[in-house]
Design brief:
heterodimer; A: mainly alpha; 23 helices; B: alpha/beta; 2 domains; 6-stranded mixed β-sheet; globular; Tripartite tricarboxylate transporter permease (chain A); transmembrane (chain A)
Chain lengths: 502, 336
């Protein structure tokens, strides 16, 4: 433990080199731009810039690339809040309250809350990495297919359990999502499913295409119907908004703490940031005393998912370094970079390349601080985008959406699909079907199905595999509890109500 | 040193320009815009790593006058990427790296393409497969593991692998045939994930490529039992204790008569000219001379065989027949 701190101290020495600080600033700014363009995404951004870094030292190179990644994480929140377009899967939950806040003229507050929460989540995750790195890597190894499925189950259950829409509509929406997620190659049998011989469907429906369409295009259609008026127009741009928001944030310490724990946990178990953000939002909604107001622009509904997503995103770096398993596409590209620099991720990295590892960890601390300062100064600037008349901004958003959809797979078919999803999103909203369960199912449906079938293959079809050890049983138990919570609550109320008249 | 290099480069460029001006205009084809490098697999896998390393080497040594851009098209077990190249008839600014899915995907899924629809450029290397177990397990040699599988009922031992009806499962079926016992095959998305599942004890063995599991071996988490090749690997650098790749016996010598190597090759769209193919063959020959490439071959314990032209086509023909035979036996052909 003590020697970790010695290493970290040296790491700070490396990371705070002026050249490296400059790289951090450049990386964050590039990352924010990449994050603002939906579809371009962190993975593509890092991949494009990877060859540029071959002339640098591995430590400088990874600092630049991870800062692009942080920047993209920060940038994803901007479009989620302003235009209801989540650039990354884990920003979806941020739109639920972030966008309503922007529409009621509180974009500055929402952005400040999102950025600050990201910072807090990431910061605590780095502290955790510093303190218990070796233990954490061991814990991650406990996760086989059954444990992974249990985590996905918990994510679905905690989301369904808290939905305020009628359960039937939530389930219909989720089932549409599962059906869409099933299109493409079935990983377990190696056969094509639901592609009907159409080559464009080989890849299935990309999450980003669906989300850009359902949320972004759907939102524009709705706004057009409401008379080309973007309510954010009334927003006053107040440079002090950052301080004002900061004063209110400490009130939500319990939500933040809970989200940090959920995030770190989901990041280490390689479930990732997306289930973390949904789960944190779902639980905050249930536990918070403002829970009823969630979805109408409650600042706590921005704090919870953002904190969790970034704690998870940061914690996920640990399994990547210690086990060589990338937790996200971006991490996979970074992993490719490590190999080119001659660094072999795996159990020996912490021993053989201690200087590199602790330089990277130190750069996570500094990079996050540099990032927070940079993005907070831009809050008034980004919030003022909403003052532009809708008739001008709408076509611009449409073009950005179309470019984003095209960039995902360099495919024009995806742009058409985005339009189709846009109309679907509009229709679902008009008929009061919730979009979130659909999106959750598209994002996690594939992985959940895969983990479920892998577990059953391993147990020769016996469902008892999900109760076969304390770890998997307790996660499944939590999941059942979360999913059945509304029923349990009703029973509890009845039980309490019935003895009184008697 | 820098100046010296710049001078040298200048001189070469000048010479090249003179040489060019003396040749007829049609002689040497050169790319005139960025070349797309299609990877028919996801980010982070073996093919992707190799493509990105190639991109890095080519950029670092300025081996091409335009850029090389890596694009992943992994849909339908890589079918998406191959179809994209097939449909770009006569486009010399597109190349694709292949893995065994060049043969297995059309057979297993019925996606309409065949290697003959593409223009073969060169074989860059062959990737090896190794039988791995957890270092905590009692099996020190392939023979001991084989005996344990034979002694247990069908399906007791779990083999993890990448994808379904692809190379890892083909090897697993061949192993089952050789031993006369069924194993439980569990497909995962990528080789790195398989290695970690083996470290965590969720599966009993894997047939990971060397590069996917070498770091776990170095950390004494996994143990290589044998390599699915006809002769042991040549690399003698120490990895764990005094063990090296060259100390891993062949599976054949351990009584497991299975041999399998995976193609890492480059193809172009149909209808390109011979000059255009020659340009890329020449490019990859230059890449092979760089220290970075040699390091990659050593790190991943690759079999660095290089082939182009008719020799490569003959090899492809043979490999296609082998795969068809293996997949037919295993019942992996689509439409069955």
């Amino acid at each position: 433990m003590l020697e970790n701190f010695t290493y970290l101290y040296h790491g700070f020495g490396i990371a705070s080199d002026p050249f490296n600080i400059l790289l951090m600033a450049i990386g964050i700014l590039l990352g924010v731009i990449i994050g603002v363009l939906p579809g371009l995404g962190g993975a593509n951004g890092v991949a494009i810039l990877l060859p540029l870094t071959f002339s640098m030292s591995p430590t400088s190179a990874i600092i630049l690339l991870t800062c692009i990644y942080w920047g993209a994480l920060f940038g994803g929140a901007i479009t989620s809040v302003l235009f209801n377009i989540p650039g990354e899967p884990w920003s979806v939950a941020t739109t639920f309250d972030g966008h309503p806040m922007a529409r009621s003229g509180r974009a500055g507050e929402a952005l400040t809350a999102a950025f600050t929460s990201s910072f807090i989540g990431a910061f605590f995750a780095v502290v955790m990495i510093t303190l218990i790195a070796p233990l954490v890597a061991q814990f991650a190894l406990q996760f086989g297919p059954a444990e992974k499925f249990a985590v996905y189950f918990l994510a679905f259950a905690s989301f369904v359990g808290m939905s305020k829409e009628p359960p039937a509509k939530t389930i219909v929406s989720m089932m549409i999502g599962f059906a869409l997620a099933a299109v493409g190659l079935d990983m377990v049998t190696g056969q094509l499913r639901l592609t009907f011989g159409v080559t464009e469907l080989l890849n299935g429906f990309d999450f980003l295409i669906a989300v850009i369409g359902l949320f972004g295009i759907g939102e524009i259609l709705l706004t057009m119907e409401e008379g080309l008026e973007f309510r954010g127009k009334a927003a006053k741009i107040d440079p002090k908004v950052v301080w004002k928001t900061w004063k209110t944030l400490p009130k939500y310490w319990a939500t933040s703490l809970r989200s940090i724990v959920i995030g770190c946990w989901m990041g280490i178990t390689p479930a990732g940031a997306t289930p973390a953000s949904f789960m944190a939002y779902g639980i905050a909604k249930r536990v918070s005393k403002n829970g009823k107001n969630f979805g109408n622009g409650e600042i706590e509904g921005v704090v919870a998912p953002e904190t969790a997503a970034h704690a998870a995103g940061t914690a996920a770096m640990l399994p990547m370094l210690a086990l060589g398993v990338p937790g996200s596409p971006t991490a996979a590209v970074l992993l490719g970079g490590l190999l080119i620099w001659g660094l072999q991720p795996g159990p020996m990295l912490f021993v053989e390349q201690a200087e590199f590892v602790w330089g990277l960890i130190a750069s996570m601390y500094l990079g996050n601080i540099v990032g927070l300062i940079l993005v907070l100064t831009t809050v008034p600037l980004f919030a003022s985008i909403l003052r532009i008349p809708f008739s001008i901004i709408a076509p611009v958003i449409l073009v950005i959406c179309a470019i984003g959809a095209y960039t995902v797979n360099n495919n024009v078919f995806d742009v058409l699909m985005m339009m189709v999803f846009g109309v679907l999103g509009y229709l679902l909203k008009k008929t009061n079907y919730p979009l979130a369960p659909l999106v959750l199912a598209i994002v996690l449906g594939d992985s959940a199905e895969e983990a479920f079938r892998q577990s059953l293959l391993g147990s020769a079809g016996s469902i008892s595999v999900f109760w076969s050890n304390p770890l998997v049983s307790s996660i499944m138990g939590l999941g059942l509890l979360a999913g059945l919570w509304p029923l349990i609550g009703m029973l509890f109320n009845k039980l309490r109500a019935s003895p009184q008249p008697a | 040193m820098k100046h010296f290099q710049a001078l040298g480069l200048g001189a070469i460029t000048a010479l090249g320009m003179t040489a060019l001006s003396m040749l007829p205009a049609s002689a040497a084809w050169q790319p005139t815009k960025p070349v797309e490098f299609i990877v028919p697999a996801g980010t982070g896998g073996g093919a992707d790593q190799m493509a990105r390393t190639l991109q890095g080497i080519i950029a670092k040594h300025s081996l091409m006058s335009t850029q090389l851009v890596v694009i992943n098209k992994s849909g339908g077990a890589g079918g998406e990427g191959f179809l994209d190249v097939k449909s770009n008839k006569g486009n010399p600014h597109k190349i694709v790296i292949s893995l065994s899915n060049l043969f297995t995907t059309p057979l297993a899924t019925g996606i309409p393409f065949n290697w003959k629809d593409l223009t073969p450029v060169a074989m860059l290397a062959l990737d090896e497969f190794v039988l791995w177990v957890n270092a905590q397990s009692p099996y020190k040699t392939a023979q001991e593991y084989e005996a344990a599988i034979k002694a247990a009922p069908d399906g007791t031992f779990k083999m993890g692998g990448t994808g379904s009806k692809q190379e890892d499962q083909i090897i697993t079926v061949a192993v089952e045939k050789a031993l006369g016992k069924k194993m439980t095959y569990i497909p995962y998305k990528g080789g790195g994930e398989v290695a970690v599942q083996l470290v965590g004890g969720h599966i009993n063995s894997s047939v990971n490529n060397p590069i996917e599991a070498v770091s776990q071996w170095r950390g004494d988490k996994l143990r290589p039992l044998c390599v699915f090749d006809s002769k042991p690997l040549p690399y003698t650098d120490k990895i764990l204790g005094d063990q090296s790749w060259s100390s891993v016996p062949t599976c054949i010598s351990a009584g497991l008569n299975v041999e399998y190597l995976m193609l890492r090759g480059v193809f172009m769209p149909p209808g390109v000219t011979d000059e255009q193919v020659a340009y890329f063959v020449d490019l990859f020959k230059k890449v092979r001379e760089t220290p970075e490439w040699k390091q990659l071959m050593k790190d991943g314990a690759f079999n660095p065989t290089f082939m182009s032209g008719d020799e490569f086509k003959t090899w492809l023909d043979g490999a296609e027949k082998t795969h068809k035979g293996l997949m037919q036996e295993a019942g992996f052909i689509a439409g069955n």
